[in-house]
């Protein structure tokens, strides 16, 4: 909200106008004529910024005073401008926890941007060096993503994202496209950073598994005392389709490696085996993906007319499901309205390829 | 879509914390307390919780739209330790009297993240507005590309945002994990940089009137030379004369240096030096103009003269102690650069080592962040006032600030002791809001 224009010091000008019409309003009235003000001095002192020009010289209505809150706010702004107006010196974070040590009867930690919410912390972001490091290990050394993720303790999806955006950045560099370099430097300076060195704490947990809502309930499953009730049994007890955590691990090769180490294998050898297996699994995945695309392409016939490319695929018009409303069904069907352009239906795309 | 009115958006009387980087908002955030709810009915409590939280989370989104997005099942994750999983198959948790042996519970997988040994709860109730964070406009704001959620929404509507390389004009597009969104670099710089008018006024305040007038003069000059630059570049491209290009590059370089001293070091440069610098700038301009003409024998000698003058001027300047820090960083940078930098510094034979370093540092800084009157924000670019208290990037986003792009990695999740939804409200208040929305879930 913009600060309201206050006419705190306009009153003498008004009086002056009343007594003697002046051609210009540049004359400072309080200096020329020592007229006592009819208002408390608090407002006139706070509104020194608007004293140079009178905004309502013709009006006889007294201007509204700054409220108590507004005065407090102004005072706060003046006191805290050195702290919060500019980013913190030395590339540290600058959250309100600098001045607020307790809120809602709870302690406020330095990495807490919102003093009332102890559960949200400003966590570290990857520094420019760290991103470069990740890009080099993936693109130049050719390490598999899983191995990079395990090495730096960075989530696999994040590794992929870093590489993806770094590729674009490199392309822009080659094309001499203008980048937001001062912005990037300033922002990264304001945030807590991780350089992915050995001495730092692990950046994030890389073995997160999703908590299925079926598994949040309490179950009573009778089992004999002699029975080995493992994680797989527990998953089966929660539901037929619930997977055990071992099957949900993002990097199952890590568990294999740990098993080998627990079995007495040399850690270095185990790690080499892990990298090999990770590379193999990624290779297999890529091959599978490629085969899928090729199969899809084989089903399709492309006819290029120069202006358009027609793509033909085989469809069975009778294959519309038991109710005739199957999602994969094609073509117009009697009694089945097309909903795609109906009023009230959401037309925002749900995905972008 | 018709927007809600913005009257008293950052009011002081009935304060609401908003998704902006405003100083009023900062003041309100500091004053924010969980209200006393003991003497309220449960309905009133829920109402208060809902109205306070909705004032922050997508206040520009209509209530029925949010109600359709709300999910009563917040997402959460558990970190499983592979070393633990390799050594145990889960049956150890049924040993003892049926809930695991009591002697050492160090290795329980779900409680691994706790360092002090106490079990931390998963703050599910802070995840009420997790579906909102999936929206494109709010993600753009969270990636620090816009100064408010409403501005981010405007970016999307005005076609400045692409998702996976395609223009997306729906602010309500729900990002899927793996989607990359990218905002126009200029828009981001304008949104997060200092505004043009305001910063000029603030700079003029502490200095004297003459100095500010000089600054304006230099600006005007800069604009003129920019125009000349544009013309010069066009001619150069046509001519493709290598020697001339070299001259032009040198002249441009000198001009930039002179401008640098005019603008940045104005506090340290004496009036006489400034005067000569201005004259020098004029000379460079005329030299550039003359060099554009096809037949010009005098350009080389003129350039040499100009360069000599500048180096003499620069050597007159003394480096004061407050630039020692700059020196250090410059030296570090030069060490990284290695041999390539020595050739350029050798061309300025008259400077001392320290001065050379400072000059290099400044030149690089200006090349990255130049003064440019044509930009809609104050140049050289600086982050806007009161921004840093709001600067954080949640973990579900991975941002590359250089290209103003970000990847939505996954949906925000809760884990032991932490929730990834940035909400300024206490868990009690969020829980009340959650209960309000459960009503029609």
UniProtKB/TrEMBL annotation, chain A:
The lineage's top-level taxon is Eukaryota
What residue spans carry the Low complexity bias annotation? 40-52
An example molecular function term from Gene Ontology annotations: structural constituent of ribosome
The record's listing under InterPro entries reads:
Ribosomal_mS45
One CC-aspect GO term: mitochondrial small ribosomal subunit
Specify where the region named Disordered lies, as residue ranges. Answer: 40-66
Q: Polar residues bias located where? A: 53-64
* Protein's organism: Chaetomidium leptoderma
Q: Which residues cross the membrane?
A: none
Name of the protein in question: Eukaryotic mitochondrial regulator protein-domain-containing protein
GO process terms (BP): mitochondrial translation
Automatic annotation (TrEMBL), chain B:
Is Chaperone found in the keyword set? no
Basic and acidic residues compositional bias: what residue ranges?
108-119, 324-336
Top-level taxon of the source organism: Eukaryota
Positions of the RNA-binding S4 domain: 134-203
Q: Which PROSITE patterns match?
A: RIBOSOMAL_S4, S4
What GO cellular-component annotations does this UniProt entry give?
mitochondrial small ribosomal subunit
InterPro entries from the entry? Ribosomal_uS4, Ribosomal_uS4_CS, S4_RNA-bd, S4_RNA-bd_sf
GO MF terms, alphabetically ordered? rRNA binding; structural constituent of ribosome
Annotated region described as Disordered, given as residue ranges: 86-121, 192-220, 286-306, 319-347
- Compositionally biased spans, kind Low complexity: 338-347
Q: Which family does it belong to?
A: Belongs to the universal ribosomal protein uS4 family.
Keywords, alphabetical: Ribonucleoprotein, Ribosomal protein, RNA-binding, rRNA-binding
Q: Which SMART domains match?
A: S4
According to the UniProt entry, which residue ranges have a biased composition of type Polar residues? 292-302
Q: Which organism is it from?
A: Chaetomidium leptoderma
Q: What is this protein called?
A: RNA-binding S4 domain-containing protein
Q: Does the keyword rRNA processing apply?
A: no
Gene Ontology biological process terms, A to Z: ribosomal small subunit biogenesis
């Amino acid at each position: 909200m913009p600060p309201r224009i206050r006419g705190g010091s306009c009153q003498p000008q008004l009086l002056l106008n009343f007594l003697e019409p002046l051609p210009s309003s540049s004359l400072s009235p309080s200096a020329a004529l020592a007229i006592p003000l009819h208002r408390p001095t608090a407002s006139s002192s706070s509104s020194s910024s608007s004293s140079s020009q009178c905004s309502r010289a013709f009006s006889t209505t007294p201007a509204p005073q700054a409220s108590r809150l507004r005065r407090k706010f102004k005072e706060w702004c003046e006191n805290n401008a050195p702290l919060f107006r500019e980013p913190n010196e030395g590339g540290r974070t600058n959250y309100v926890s600098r001045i607020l040590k307790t809120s809602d009867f709870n302690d406020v930690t330095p990495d807490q941007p919102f003093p009332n919410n102890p559960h949200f912390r400003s966590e570290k972001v990857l520094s420019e060096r760290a991103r470069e490091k990740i890009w080099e290990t993936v693109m130049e050394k050719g390490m598999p993503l899983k191995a990079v993720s395990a090495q730096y303790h960075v989530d696999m999806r994040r590794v992929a994202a870093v590489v993806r955006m770094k590729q674009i950045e490199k392309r822009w560099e080659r094309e001499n496209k203008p980048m937001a370099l001062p912005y990037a430097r300033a922002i990264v300076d304001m945030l807590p950073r991780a350089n992915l060195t050995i001495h730092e704490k692990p950046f994030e947990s890389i073995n997160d598994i999703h908590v299925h809502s079926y598994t949040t309930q309490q179950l009573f499953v009778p089992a004999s005392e002699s029975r080995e009730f493992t994680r797989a049994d527990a998953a089966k007890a929660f539901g037929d389709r619930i997977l055990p955590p071992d099957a949900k691990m993002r990097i199952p090769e890590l568990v294999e490696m740990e098993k080998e180490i627990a079995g007495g294998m040399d850690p270095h050898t185990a790690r080499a085996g892990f990298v090999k297996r990770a590379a193999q699994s990624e290779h297999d995945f890529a091959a599978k993906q490629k085969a899928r695309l090729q199969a899809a392409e084989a089903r399709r016939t492309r006819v290029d007319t120069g202006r358009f490319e027609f793509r033909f695929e085989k469809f069975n018009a009778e294959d519309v499901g038991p109710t005739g409303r199957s999602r994969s069904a094609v073509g117009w069907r009697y009694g089945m309205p097309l909903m795609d352009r109906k009023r009230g239906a959401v037309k925002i795309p749900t995905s972008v390829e | 879509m018709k927007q809600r009115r913005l009257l008293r958006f950052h009011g002081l009387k009935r304060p609401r914390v908003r998704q902006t980087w405003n100083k009023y908002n900062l003041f309100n955030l500091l004053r924010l307390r969980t209200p006393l709810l003991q003497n309220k009915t449960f309905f009133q409590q829920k109402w208060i919780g809902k109205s306070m939280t909705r004032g922050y989370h997508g206040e520009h989104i209509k209530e029925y739209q949010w109600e359709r997005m709300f999910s009563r099942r917040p997402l959460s994750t558990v970190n499983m330790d592979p070393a633990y999983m390799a050594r145990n198959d889960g049956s150890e948790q049924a040993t003892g009297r049926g809930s695991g042996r009591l002697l050492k519970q160090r290795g329980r997988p779900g409680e691994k993240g706790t360092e002090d040994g106490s079990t931390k709860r998963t703050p599910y109730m802070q995840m009420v507005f997790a579906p909102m964070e999936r929206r494109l406009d709010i993600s753009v704001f969270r990636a620090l590309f816009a100064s408010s959620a409403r501005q981010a929404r405007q970016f999307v509507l005005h076609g400045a945002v692409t998702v996976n390389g395609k223009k997306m004009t729906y602010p309500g597009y729900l990002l899927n994990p793996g989607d990359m969104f990218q905002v126009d670099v200029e828009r981001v710089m304008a949104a997060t940089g200092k505004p043009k008018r305001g910063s000029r006024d603030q700079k003029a305040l502490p200095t004297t009137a003459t100095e500010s007038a000089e600054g304006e003069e230099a600006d005007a000059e800069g604009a003129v030379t920019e125009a000349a630059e544009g013309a010069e570049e066009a001619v150069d491209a046509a001519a493709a004369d290598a020697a001339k290009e070299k001259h032009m590059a040198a002249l441009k370089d000198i001009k930039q240096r002179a401008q640098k001293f005019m603008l940045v070091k104005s506090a340290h440069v004496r009036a006489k030096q400034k005067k000569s610098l201005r004259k020098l700038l004029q000379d460079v301009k005329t030299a550039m103009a003359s060099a554009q003409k096809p037949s010009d024998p005098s350009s080389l000698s003129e350039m040499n003269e100009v360069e000599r003058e500048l180096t003499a001027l620069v050597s007159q300047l003394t480096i004061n102690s407050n630039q020692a820090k700059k020196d250090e960083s410059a030296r570090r940078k030069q060490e990284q650069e290695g041999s390539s930098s020595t050739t350029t510094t050798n061309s300025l034979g008259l400077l001392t080592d320290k001065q050379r370093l400072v000059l290099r540092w400044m030149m690089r800084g200006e090349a990255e962040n130049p003064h440019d009157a044509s930009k809609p924000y104050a140049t050289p670019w600086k982050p806007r006032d009161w921004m840093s208290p709001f600067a954080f990037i949640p973990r579900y986003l991975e941002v590359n600030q250089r290209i103003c792009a970000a990847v939505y990695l996954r949906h925000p999740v809760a884990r032991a002791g932490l929730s990834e939804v940035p909400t300024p409200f206490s868990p009690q208040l969020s829980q009340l809001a959650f209960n309000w929305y459960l009503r029609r879930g």
